[in-house]
Amino acid sequence: VNRAEVVDGVRFVAFSSASLQDPNPSFGEETLEFLKAQVAAAGTQQLLIPGCHHPLDSGEFASRYDADRVLDALRPANVPLVLVGHGHIARKYDFAGLDGVMGGSTFQAANQRVNNSGYGVGHISGDRLVYAYKLAALDAATTRLIDKKIAPQAG
Length: 155
Hints:
single chain, alpha/beta, 155 residues, three-stranded antiparallel β-sheet, six-stranded mixed β-sheet
């Protein structure tokens, strides 16, 4: 399922990496057209934060070309951060020049000795983006993954 919503002027775009190539993730033409339409709607000024389940540098994709086409579609936009999942850890990525984060895990897996369950917390203020991981057992987010200056939005 592909979906977009604008919240406080930021365009959040969720797109599916599950496809007919299952069990290998891939991006179909419908998803690529959806992404291109969202990039066009955002223009170069509005912040666009895309997210999908599989990290864009994953070796699991049906073809390396799949993720490359997504990255090419996103490049014209003002993308300060790409959100991904799948690995159940809090991690920062560099997707060919686009910063990304994996949001961690909301549960403790049976094979984990330490409970690292929690969630990501993001904040945009002016020209600054901060994203940190908050362990469920703590009162505040303590693992800062991203803290950077971003291109300001128009308007």
